[in-house]
Amino acid sequence: MPEDPSTSATPSPTFDEAERVLWADSGAGYEAVYASMCANTIPALLDGAAVAAGSALLDVGTGTGTVARAAVARGAAVTAVDAEPSMLDLARGKAPEAEFVLAIVPDLPFEPATFDAVVGNFVLDHFGRPKVAMRALRTIAKPGGRVAFTLWPAERSAGRSVFSRAGAETQGWIPRQMPPLVLADDYPRTEEGLAGLFREVGLEDVTTSVIDWDQQTTAEEWWISVGSGVGPSGRTYQAQTPEVRAAFRENYLRIAAEMTDGDGVMRLPYRALLAVGTVAEDK
Prior knowledge:
- There is one protein chain.
- By secondary structure, this protein is of the alpha/beta class.
- It has a single domain (13-279), classed as Vaccinia Virus protein VP39 (Rossmann fold).
- Helices cover 39% and strands 22% of the residues.
- The chain has helices at residues 5-8, 15-22, 27-38, 42-48, 66-73, 85-94, 130-139, 162-168, 191-200, 219-227, 231-238, 242-258, and strands at 56-60, 77-82, 99-102, 115-120, 141-151, 203-217, 266-279.
- A seven-stranded mixed β-sheet has the order 3-2-1-4-5-7-6.
- Helix 3 crosses helix 6 and helix 8 (162-168) packs across helix 12 (242-258).
């Protein structure tokens, strides 16, 4: 008898599962390019969370440990989690004083009210159910504790548009398709939307701010992530035919030249959002 397709079909991956595949084994490529770029928001992130000597801090989605290292330098007692082993391997070498845990949000191995502060640098976009994730993270912060997260806004800056521009201008380019987020858990990627997310999960005294900076690099250095298949742009690039990849690189180099000065420095404008909230005190 033929198989019943309803019982033999492979279930579609969730957004979170697809994200983990997207970043699998990408620690070295991420560290080579994106770690320094994402580090520009760390001082404001840790200031917002009031991280200081003696703070018990949870760093969510630590990546290769740049936030953890900065928090250790402030004297904090740092626990950091990530879902990607190759990231944690590099993070342990970068901040050996911190404790690193392989874990997936929201299924974290911590008791409620464990941390003085919970922070995440650009990790919100990796959650398929951000409201569920943020409620879990708020729960493991102590009453009166701070929760602070950065986010890429919906409106892309020129720096974040380089690879998408190159793809849009490349004939035959096939964009990456990700599973949809759960609609009830989604929120607008704006200052108002981020503040609304924080308030909806039960945080108080919510504030938001905008962080702007120029990332200085070179065209070849910035290509490392795509050429080595790191992240969304890199995985999408690898999935193209050789002819399309060659055309994409030509378009990328042309766009990069527009953003490069006479000294060969490529300047990429970036913008991030930061939200900070406080866990309600017990009454």
